Amino acid sequence: MSARRVVVVDSGVDPHHPALRARCRVLPGLGFDAGGAQVALRADQDLLGHGTAVAATIVRFCASLPEPVELVPLRVFDADASCDFAAVLHALRHAATRSPALVNLSLGTTSLRHRDALEAAIAALRDAGARVVAPASYAGLPCDPGNLPGVEAVVADPNVLPMLPELRPVRGRLVWFASPQPPPDRDGVVRLRTRGDSLAVAAVSGALLRTLPG
Predict the structure, then answer these.
(1) Is 103 within 8 Å of 125 (Cβ atoms)?
(2) What are residue 14's phi and psi, to 5 degrees?
(3) Can you tell me the distance from the alpha carbon of 83 to that of 99, in angstroms, rounded to the nearest whole number?
(4) How many other C-beta atoms can be found within 10 angstroms of the C-beta atom of residue 125?
(5) pLDDT at residue 106, as a whole number
(6) Whole-number pLDDT of residue 75
(7) 128 has pLDDT over 50
């Protein structure tokens, strides 16, 4: 396991964006479809910008670390933030082979159809030493994998300060509450437009990464 490596399952990551350039290492990534096909990503391949916004939030939390964060983009979104969830399962299975400390999933499913496969994928990641961060709900409904045991579940809360996610007990488990807004733009970086649960999850990933031993 690499102490500062995060797998970002999303739309890709553009390392040339001002929020990321010279602030992290973006490792070679892959794109996945529902059938499990893998496609090598170009270094700047993020048609949607969602994954880049998520990555920028994670990196912003880790600006004070002595070693740069390593990001591994695994693309499941193309031009819009939706996909067949089977693609996410393929990406998670691959993520376990990339030795991450964290896997950021700023996405989820309200369907129970994939629960068994998700539980197996999450177990493999945990066996590999990785922590998985995901939203607790989508459109007001509980969603997986955020509701699965062992996953760092996140709720977007506008009353939480942007750089200070809070861990609270909720119905017998601990749940993260984090700001849905981007972190403060102290470096003159152009803010990306993503908001909501996506950035709340990324904020928790960044906060957790910052506390891990190097």
Answers:
(1) yes
(2) -100, 105
(3) 25
(4) 23
(5) 96
(6) 95
(7) yes
Mean pLDDT of 121-134: 97
Helix residue ranges, H only, 9-168:
50-61, 85-95, 115-127
CB atoms within 10 A of CB 165: 24
| Number of other residues whose CB lies within 10 A of the CB of residue 171 | 5
7 is written with which tokens? 């797998």
- Domains of the chain as residue ranges with CATH: 5-211 (3.40.50.200)
Structure tokens of 88? 């996410």
Residue-averaged pLDDT of the chain: 90
Q: What percent of the chain has pLDDT over 90?
A: 70
The whole-number pLDDT of residue 189 equals: 45
DSSP 173-203: EEEEEE-SSPPP-TT-PPPP---THHHHHHH
Bridge partner residues of 152 (DSSP): 133
* Predicted pLDDT at 190: 46
The whole-angstrom separation of Cα 23 and Cα 97 is: 24
Q: Using an 8 Å Cβ cutoff, are 78 and 87 in contact?
A: no
CB 103 within 8 A of CB 131: yes
